Amino acid sequence: MGLLTREKETAPCTVEISHKFDSLHAHVRFNNGAVIYPGDEVLVHGPEIMAPYGEIVSEDRTATITRASGIERLWTRMTGDFEFMELCEFSFSEEVTL
């Protein structure tokens, strides 16, 4: 992998969609042990998966992993913390003592 080149690879994966009251999530597990690094992109192939309320749906799919170049990986590591802070919600409140 060079500093400016991007590589693509395909990997079998399992997609799990949960649509429950206590858990709303979508997870992708790579069946061949592939690991995703900062800056990599994943595209899961196939039609949209809809899980009815109260159920968990799991399907086997194929995914294309586009590996980040060396420069993209470095940039992602350097700026990732700033983007994470956008997801944080801060609350400032007064403590009232009686």
Question: Mind explaining what this structure looks like?
Answer:
This protein has one domain (7-87). The chain contains 1 helix and 4 strands, in the order ββββα. The chain is flat. It has one helix spanning 70-87; strands at 7-19, 24-30, 41-44, 55-67. With 98 residues, it is of the alpha+beta class.
Largest sheet: 4 strands, antiparallel
Task: Write the H/E string, N to C.
Answer: EEEEH
Radius of gyration computed on alpha carbons? 19 Å
Average pLDDT taken over every residue: 84
What gap, in angstroms, lies between the N and C termini? 63 Å
User: Any idea what the shape is?
Assistant: flat
Q: Quick one: how many beta strands?
A: 4
Structural class: alpha+beta
Count of structural domains: 1
Stretches with pLDDT under 50, minimum 5 residues: none
Order of strands across the biggest sheet?
Answer: 2-1-4-3
Strand content: 35-45%
Total helices: the number is 1
Helix content: 10-25%
Distinctive features:
38% strand, 4-stranded antiparallel β-sheet, alpha+beta, 98 residues, 1 helix
